[in-house]
Amino acid sequence: MLKKYEFDKTPVVEIVNDLLEDTAKRGASDIHLDPMENKMKIRIRIDGDLIDYAEIPKTIEKNLVTRIKILAGMNITESRLPQDGAIKTNLHGLGLDLRVSVLPLLEGEKVVIRILDYSRSLNGIETLGFSEQNYKKIVHMISVPNGIILVTGATGSGKSTTVYSILQRLNKEQTNIITVEDPIEMSIEGINQVQTNSEIGLTFASALRAILRQDPNIIMIGEIRDSETAKIAVRASITGHLVLSTLHTNDSLTTIERLLDMDVERYLLASSLTGIVSQKLARALCPHCHKMRKTNDYEKELFKAVLNKDIDELPEAVGCEECVDGYRGRLAIHEVLIINQDIRDAISSGIRKEELRELVYKADVTTMLQDGLEKVLENKTTFEEIIKIIELSDDKTVEKNVDLKQQIRNTEISNIPDEEYKEKAM
């Protein structure tokens, strides 16, 4: 049901304040203000899905957008160009850290407000939903004094939360940590954080060169966006620094390929890459209302092929007053790879992609499909959610879908004993 505002009696300032406060309390990650011919529609993203929230009369639209621009430090006289800004405020004891983007459209200006919540980062890596095996790999990675650790995934998949959690663990008095970010999403006491500004020439690459003269132990790069940044990051890691960064790739294999596409020298990448953490977000099952259902034949076959388990029942979303359509919150599905010597040799020698894939998934790695299905069995999410995040719409598409077949193939490879591997791969 849409929220109603009394626009004739309520000032725009109060409407904006209520909008920000109420949506944050509902657990929204984004607010979308969409201009239309006769009105402005407000939608909010909860647990990854957009839902209708309210409608704004066309007569109020301009004043509402102007108020948001003022709060975000934008130019209120400019309506023809995109603008970005930020809002940090406190409403009735609720601290809000927001990122604002304005985009001119045919019917007006579209506003998207991202609500940043890094409370989970403050709680530590152990609260991020890593399996016991993957958690041990993360702890091992960050104990290595030098090298590159990459956290990868799509926009909004929780990469920054994971990186900040790692920084919190590494943030000690005897350690000099410097970050270069655009923007700085979370201020952390004890860490030196640099905000890039391309307009004056302070890019990721130029900031990194300066950072290397600041005697750092650990360097965090908000995102590796280009070849120059990738090369400097790699060279920084082989000169005794631990480098953390993020990359927009889906899994371990495509991460290695992307870095090579950025013209990073193979021998440098092979010697510097410590590990890769890939993740996606799935909606978490509501603990109050879910029920169990019987598995179908395809589900039984999939669990048998991937986890070697016979499964007769799976959790199913129901829906209650405590959740949205049976889901409440989100959880991360992970793939964590520690680069071993075989993979280093393969990267350095430039073997074919198919051979590299077999080496990656023959290593001690749990694929995202495995991790997701394990979390289904723990009643943390549903089978339908896992199928959705690996880009399958329904069971009928499985036979034609290369992605799922490859995930299963990767899983099979990782479960083969060494002595059987060669025979199976032929």
Structure, explained:
- It contains 16 helices and 15 strands.
- With 426 residues, it is α/β, with parallel strands linked by helices.
- The chain has a 7-stranded mixed sheet, with helices on both faces. A 6-stranded antiparallel sheet has the order 3-2-1-6-5-4. Strands 13-14 form a two-stranded antiparallel ribbon.
- Helix 7 (227-237) links the parallel strand 10 (218-221) and strand 11 (242-247).
- Helix 9 packs antiparallel against helix 11 (341-349) and helix 12 crosses helix 15 (402-414).
- The longest helix has 14 residues, at 12-25.
- The protein is globular, with a radius of gyration of 24 Å.
- The termini are far apart.
Topology (SSEs and partners):
Elements: H1 12-25, E1 30-35, E2 39-46, E3 49-57, H2 58-71, E4 83-91, E5 94-105, E6 108-116, H3 119-123, H4 132-143, E7 147-152, H5 159-170, E8 177-181, E9 192-195, H6 204-211, E10 218-221, H7 227-237, E11 242-247, H8 252-261, H9 266-272, E12 273-285, E13 291-294, H10 297-307, E14 313-316, E15 327-338, H11 341-349, H12 353-362, H13 368-377, H14 383-389, H15 402-414, H16 418-425
Parallel strand pairs: 7-11, 7-12, 8-9, 8-10, 10-11
Antiparallel strand pairs: 1-2, 1-6, 2-3, 4-5, 5-6, 12-15, 13-14
Helix pairs in contact: 1-2, 6-7, 9-11, 11-12, 12-15
Distance linking N and C termini: 58 Å
Number of strands: 15
| Secondary-structure content class | alpha/beta
* Percent helix: 25-40%
Shape by Cα distribution: globular
Low-confidence stretches: 392-401, 420-426
Radius of gyration: 24 Å
Largest sheet: 7 strands, mixed
Give me the number of helical elements.
Answer: 16
**Proportion of residues in β-strands:** 25-35%
Nearest-integer average pLDDT: 88
Biggest sheet strand order reads 9-8-10-11-7-12-15
This entry's quaternary arrangement is single chain
